[in-house]
Amino acid sequence: MDIEAFRGLLTPSGQALLAEAGAADVSEDGLIGTASRLRRGHPADLVAAALTQVRLRGRAVAKFGADASRMYFTQAGLEQSTRACVAEHRARRFASCLRPGERVLDLGCGIGADLLARARAGIGGEGVELDPLTAEVARANVVSFGLDGIVTVREGDAREEDPSGYAAVFADPGRRTARGRVFDPRSYEPPLDTVLGLAGRVPSGCVKVAPGIPHDAVPDGAEAEWISVGGEVKEAALWLGGLAGDVRRRATLISPNVHTLVPDEGLGGPEVRGGAATCTSRTAR
């Protein structure tokens, strides 16, 4: 999707086209006819951008529910974005640990899912995104929900950011390449060590990581949280500094209520045979 065509969707005429496309047949059978009809009254690149948004919004319902109809996406941004219930879960921890007025620097904010959830929880901050189109999409999402007085988005390279002055860093390093998913934290973009170094310069931090992160990649003093939605593990996060809890490992289940499981350290190590490690359920933070 061309960035200028996307910006065209944000104009009054673009919004009218987007509404018209949203009411049209965009199924595989009807897409060609819809595109041909819309092109009779609108530029081809703008029609393509509108139809792309309509189809991505349809796919996004699984992650964002009714909010998807007000959001903007890129294909990669949708695939890599945090689903709404997970972002809301994380935002609650930020809200419970940060003081009023403290701000979060969001490195690699993508289309802004976590940024929006924190803003809705009253947490201000700034999102930084390397890709110009994705940054434009994130800005449009912030404006769409009326949150532009709480958070902002700009283009930038996370590796060159100075987090000084922020209370916390949230980072979502890229874990996909043209060849597929990346599993080695050293191959994240930026690498996990780089992101942890940036987060270590502020009082608190949270880094979104792949669920398969090796346990020895979890830094000392951090809390690793694995999150399951509807019975399927979706992602993990490393909580650092003032955002870390009093346990090193946590499993959180969202289905739709939130439950969290932590190891019972008093039981010692698990038996080698015929036994399993025991966990204790706690109320979610």
Defining traits:
single chain, 285 residues, alpha/beta, 12 strands, 34% helix, globular
Protein architecture, described:
The chain is of the alpha/beta class and 285 residues long. 34% of the residues lie in helices and 22% in strands. It has nine helices and twelve strands. The strands form two sheets. Strands 3-2-1-4-7-9-8-10-11-12 form a ten-stranded mixed sheet, with helices on both faces. The protein has a two-stranded antiparallel ribbon with strand order 5-6. Helix 6 packs across helix 7. The longest helix has 21 residues, at 44-64. It is globular. It starts with a helix and ends with a strand. Mean pLDDT is 91; it is low at 275-281.
> Can you give the helix content as a percent range?
25-40%
Number of beta strands: 12
Shape: globular
Instruction: Give the N-terminus to C-terminus distance in angstroms.
Output: 39 Å
pLDDT average, as an integer? 91
Radius of gyration: 21 Å
Question: In percent terms, what proportion of residues is strand?
Answer: 15-25%
Structural class: alpha/beta
Which residues form runs of ≥5 with pLDDT under 50? 275-281
Helix segment tally: 9
Described by strand count, sense and barrel closure, the largest sheet is:
10 strands, mixed
